[in-house]
Amino acid sequence: MTSSNEIVHNGLFIGGVWRAGGAGEFDVLDPADGSVVAAIADGNEADGTAAVDAAVEALPGWAATAPRERSELLRRTYELMLRDREELAALISAENGKALADARAEVTYAAEFFRWFAEEGVRTAGDYGVAPAGGTRTVVTHKPVGVAALVTPWNFPAAMATRKLAPALAAGCTTVLKPASETPLTTLAVVRLMVEAGLPAGVVNVVPTKRSGPLVSTWLSDPRVRKISFTGSTEVGRTLLRQASDRVLNASMELGGNAPFVVTDDADLELAVEAAMVAKFRGAGQACTAANRFYVHAAVADEFAERFGNAVEKLSVGSAAQGHDIGPLISARAVEEVGSLVERAVAGGARVSHRAATPDDAGFYYAPTVLVDVAPDADVVTQEIFGPVAPIVTWTDEEQMLRLVNDTEMGLAAYVVSGELGRALRISERIDAGMVGINRGLVSDPSAPFGGMKQSGLGREGARAGLEEFLETQYFTIQWPH
Fold first, then answer.
1. 322 and 431 Cβ atoms separated by less than 8 Å
2. Would the pLDDT of 7 be above 60?
3. How far is Cα 10 from Cα 94, in angstroms, rounded to an integer?
4. 391-431, pLDDT tens digit by residue?
5. By CB atoms within 10 Å of each CB, which of 155, 170, 231, 352 scores lowest?
6. Of 104, 97, 105, 158, the residue nearest 320 (C-alpha)
7. How does pLDDT run across 83-125, given as a tens digit for each residue?
8. Could you give the C-alpha distances from 192 to 16, 271, 473, 481, in angstroms and in order?
């Protein structure tokens, strides 16, 4: 990338061509001040069908491309993303609002999916066996599932796109992608880098739109689309699954979270606070893996709250462009929803023990806040906050604490900080969550199977499992000569 005009490309990308949208244009706003970052082409259902047309046309050639050649494209894209890391980070901050440090970390993380699946995509898996009854041999192989529809959220505009694109392309699928209307610019920038890396026309098609429902429904009802991979809320995921069931469509769903953060009485509190700051406040708490509710042993609860609260009060809140630690939330509505949860918690007896200062700017800011004396059944505990608020619930009985931890429809991520590793593992094994961070505040890694239990989703992204989500298993039974 050599200029901002190359980064902020405002067209749909269909069949290797940048084009206008059938529904006109829409504005992308900077949540730090509400200003317009760029006008983006707005796709409609006809554009969605055109994207599928292009993906179908490209599928035979891409599926037949040697795994090594597909791998090299992904590897080159990884290198280009690192080359343009600062420009991409600035773009993420502009349309998403997250702090530049968080945005830079996201670019590195997002790029790693291209490197990981560049390596994993050439490791062909299969099997060979003898039928128990004798007389035949079985050969098991895999083939790409076909055209894959990818739907990504606004909170990680680079990583959520690459976490789907990389395995899909490594598997030999072609794709149609709808980025979140709040943050489409980053996705378009990544696709431009893929084109620079040698992306064939039609393999990746991107249709931003303000009317997500009709576009995605068009894809789900198209018999040529054989896969849906969605990251977003559980509510929307349920709707998409109902539509996908009509065609028995292959579906991967990474949905909502309500991550518990458990601190035991023997925990290293300095380590606990360090992990809590990352788990709670990365991206202003706007992550499905964010620590949502803190269960702290009563013996250390006051000291933890004081140390944690002091760290929270030191957070600098403001525009990412000015180098602050915490940026704005994504919208005015998000601020209202987070504020309502806190107000209801306080009305129910909770107390704001610590809070950071917020600027007087026009942006969508909410002060990082620590709540104590929180009831276990308060809405701020039982609902996903998606903001920089940390409610603390105290406990003394481990069994009762675990019942509270698991008393939720969600089961994506969890965190446990304990002085004794054996105790941490024992607690972690009893938590109904797909991922548990032990003595650390991060759970995501391209080499690990990201995903949840219960209503937090279906399938996994990352690791070998992420590639398998885009593959169909096929076997040949061979009559064997005596």
1. no
2. no
3. 15
4. 999 999 999 999 999 999 999 999 999 999 999 999 999 99
5. 352
6. 97
7. 999 999 999 999 999 999 999 999 999 999 999 999 999 998 8
8. 10, 41, 32, 54
C-alpha distance from residue 368 to each of 361, 371, 387 (Å) = 16, 10, 8
Strand-pairing partners, residue 462, are none
Q: Is residue 170 within 8 Å of residue 142, measured between CB atoms?
A: no
Furthest-apart CA atoms within the chain: distance in Å: 84
Distance in angstroms between the alpha carbons of the first and the last residue of the chain: 63
Contact yes or no for 185/28 (Cβ under 8 A): yes
pTM of the model: 0.94
Contact 438, 420 (CB under 8 A): no
Give the integer Cα–Cα distance in Å for 402 and 432. 10
Mean of pLDDT values over 169-189: 97
pLDDT at 345 over 90: yes
Structure tokens at 380: 């701020």
Give Cβ neighbours of residue 36 (< 8 Å, ≥ 6 apart).
Answer: 27, 28, 29, 30
Q: List the single range of 353-367, 408-422, 432-446 with lowest mean pLDDT.
A: 353-367
Closest CA to 219 of 8, 46, 394, 397: 46
Check pLDDT > 60 for residue 2.
Answer: no
Q: Cα dist. 327→75, 92, 98, 341, 368 in Å?
A: 32, 12, 5, 20, 10
Catalytic residues, which ones?
254, 288
Q: How far apart are CA 242 and CA 249, in angstroms?
A: 10
Instruction: Round the average pLDDT of the chain to a whole number and report it.
Output: 95
The model's confidence at residue 321, banded by pLDDT at 50, 70 and 90, is confident
How many other CB atoms sit within 10 Å of the CB of residue 2?
8
Is residue 243 within 8 A of residue 222, CB to CB? The reply is no
Total residue count of the chain as it appears in this document: 482
The 10 Å CB-count burial string (b at 16+, else e) for 22-42 is bbeebebbbbbeeeebbebbb
